[in-house]
TrEMBL record:
Pfam families: Sugar_tr
Coiled coil region boundaries: none
InterPro entries recorded: MFS_dom, MFS_sugar_transport-like, MFS_Sugar_Transporters, MFS_trans_sf, Sugar_transporter_CS
Major subcellular location class: membrane
Gene Ontology CC terms, in alphabetical order: membrane
Keyword Transmembrane helix carried by entry: yes
Localisation per UniProt entry: Membrane
Gene3D superfamilies: MFS general substrate transporter like domains (1.20.1250.20)
Protein name per its UniProtKB record: Major facilitator superfamily (MFS) profile domain-containing protein
GO function terms (MF aspect): carbohydrate:proton symporter activity
Keywords recorded for this protein, A-Z: Membrane, Transmembrane, Transmembrane helix
Membrane topology: Multi-pass membrane protein
All residue ranges annotated as the Major facilitator superfamily (MFS) profile domain in the record: 63-423
Amino acid sequence: MSNAITEEKPTLSEVEAHPTSADIAVYHDEKIDDRARAINAEQIEHDMTVLQAVKAYPAASWWAFVMSCTIIMESYCVFLMGQFIATHQFAKDFGKQIGPDTWIIEASWQSAFQCSGPVGAFIGVFIAGPITSKIGYRWATIGGLMALNAFIFIFYFGNSQGMFFATQILEGIPWGIFIANAPAYCSEIVPLRLRAPATQMLQMFWAIGALIVGGITYHFQSKNDSSAYRVPIALQWMFPTPLAILLFIAPESPWWLVRKGRLAEAEKAIARLGRASANDNPADAVAMIRRTIELEKSVKQPNLVELWKGTDLYRTLIVCGVYASQNLTGNLIANQAVYFFKQAGMADDTAFALGLITSALQLIMVMVSWVLTTYLGRRTIYDYGQLIATGFLVALGIAASVGHNKAATNAQASLALIVSVLF
């Protein structure tokens, strides 16, 4: 019998569990190399101007625009019900008669219609996070678009106030997904220099959607049958399917891919986003993303309770105040500007024309706000804007209380227009 000792080779798991000094050195060198590449990628993006970034990332700019078009579509859908409340035929079919050839949607149903969409959006925003984390920005948004197609079908064949109320809640759910995903996707696929412009553009897309719905309802509001509101409802279908097709061929967010450990796919996505500069390469960008994600993981994850403690409590109150003040100082009038014009005594054609003009002025004011923000800052514009809007709202209330003569009517319409544009 042989006395030789047979030496067994260690398994792969044993090698990994007990790395040699050479393995540690290689790993250390790889980490240093990743960090160097990440810093290089960050520096390249920081050194770019906005124009250089657009030229270097043309595809990223295009796909950010495509995703932002979901906001144009959402704006159209959101403002549509406000236009219907002021549409004569819609009020005649679903409202209450208050005089000869005069119908109105009751205040309770007006409130219900205006609140139903945000209720659905509230649900959509909450479910957008886990859905997007699981399947990605593209598929979450495509799913929302397909669901919206189905809900528009129900909306189109609605024949009661209750059905319209229900469909607004249902449509609101994909709206919430778009609200959550559009700015996040845009900020993740464009370079650092384009992140602020990309997110600022979203407010302009809200104004574009309002302008489109204003033009369509202005044309159809004079119809004396259900086409006055059925056709504008049907025209919602012009958005979801084309956008879904475009997003199907769009690249996924490289940040989402890196979080899922799909590094090779992340490099391909970055290459598709148009890195035209000869000094970049996708591997550097992936290294930068990995470094940022690792830093995020090293920080303790906060929970919802911490939003109401210490300094974070003040931050929470500030955020709540910023969003609440939109509804308190002009948003509701902006959403129902045409209805306010009609209540001020304007003829239907004039009221809808003023509504269209208001939407056009809002688009211009959004672009003006970019210039003002550059020189005055966001807080200054917000504070003084709220103060001025409050003054006009007080004046509007006074004008509505002094009587129904022509001067008071014109004053109400003018003040409502100013408040809508300031918003």
